[in-house]
Write a structure and sequence with these properties.
alpha/beta, 7-stranded mixed sheet, single chain, Rossmann fold, 6 helices
């Protein structure tokens, strides 16, 4: 198995995480899971801990809500498979501190900074990366400004990652649809 970037998109609860985890179980030997969720409250603590418990015990997990490359040390070179779950939380973390007076340029800059950081970490790695994101823009327009900024910035981030990916998979109801292979 050589290095490649596999980008997995879809709606909430479409099977993205299960797909990448099963791929890693079948194909990976040394797996690193990069989780971007923040432990912001008791419910999130329980969710995160539950997810960690349900993964194979041989996998290593790091929690990195931003600046992925700073969370990786030289030891990440020992992994042949890296899962990054997920770009939408990484993007949300980048803009949650913004005020209602922020603009699209500020939002795009913050999110694309995080995406460039992910791409740089991938480029320095010899592992196959599986990157999970939510597809945006298929539903309603968010009724508040920060939601619209997020949607547009995440859409741009998804496009950037899909363009450089070796494979792009769109998940629908647990079924992978190969967009790019």
């Amino acid at each position: 198995m050589g290095k490649k970037l596999i980008f997995v998109s879809g709606g909430a609860r479409s099977g993205k995480s299960s797909f990448v985890e099963n791929w890693a179980i079948e194909n990976g030997k040394k797996v690193l899971f990069i989780a971007t969720a923040e432990r912001s409250d008791e419910e999130m603590e329980e969710r995160i801990d539950s997810h960690i418990k349900n993964r194979p015990s041989s996998w290593e997990t790091i929690e990195a809500p931003s600046n992925i490359s700073k969370s990786l040390d030289d030891n990440y070179q020992k992994f042949d498979t890296i899962i990054l779950d997920c770009i939408n939380l990484l993007s949300a973390n980048a803009i949650m501190k913004f005020s209602e007076h922020s603009n699209q340029e500020e939002s795009d800059k913050a999110v694309l900074f995080q995406i460039e950081d992910v791409i740089n970490a991938y480029n320095k790695s010899s592992a196959t990366w599986l990157i999970v994101t939510n597809e945006v823009g298929l539903g309603l327009v968010p009724p508040y400004k920060l939601g619209r900024l997020f949607r547009d910035s995440l859409g741009r981030a998804n496009q950037k990652l899909a363009k450089i990916s070796d494979e792009v998979i769109f998940m629908v109801s647990g079924i992978p649809m190969y967009i790019k292979k």
